[in-house]
Amino acid sequence: MTYTIHLSRKSEQNTSQWSGGSTTQLAIYPDGADYSDRRFAWRISSAKVEAEESLFTPLPGFWRLLMIIEGELYIEHEGHHSVTLQPFEQDSFSGGWTTRSKGKVRDFNLMLAEGYSGELKAIHVAPGIHQELIGVRDHDAHHADEAFYCVAGSITVLIDEGTITLQEGDFMLISKMSSAKTITISNQTQEKATLIKTSILYG
Predict the structure, then answer these.
(1) Starting at the edge strand that comes first in sequence, how are the strands of the sheet with 14-18 ordered?
(2) Tens-place pLDDT, residues 3-26
(3) What's the CA gap between 148 and 111, in Å, rounded?
């Protein structure tokens, strides 16, 4: 199975300001796409919401998944639904909806253009070994991208013959997986580690 791995250390990531706080782009596809012109297939980012009340930037044509990392967020989609999110709870909504929020939080975001599907999953890794299935598990998908963002702690990922260690804030993207495989996640410390796994399927 052919795939590529891209590693982005916390120190290498770019953070920019927006009206309600700051955002760090972790990955965007295709490579070189510009979020500001809205011509991208998907985008993964993490943000700090520093304003007590925020109005989300309109993103018509995109579907959004948002997971809280720290804090509590009340989020309201005008004419649709509202929800209060605690750490590692998530919401899924259209970027074209009018969306307002209350609460200062740190969050994790996945934005998907039409034709792409995805999911977010929080993985809490106790000291020891954890197995995780990645890749294409849906026969309707041509291939998949899988990403891991280290929220807290330190873990080592074993994939085939290679190992990669992730510290807090590090991000790893495994691209163009055409089938499923099991990877090993090792936590060799005495503290629990937390990852956010992002799965993106190409239809």
Answers:
(1) 14-18, 21-29, 42-49, 105-113, 62-70, 90-94
(2) 999 999 999 999 998 878 899 999
(3) 16
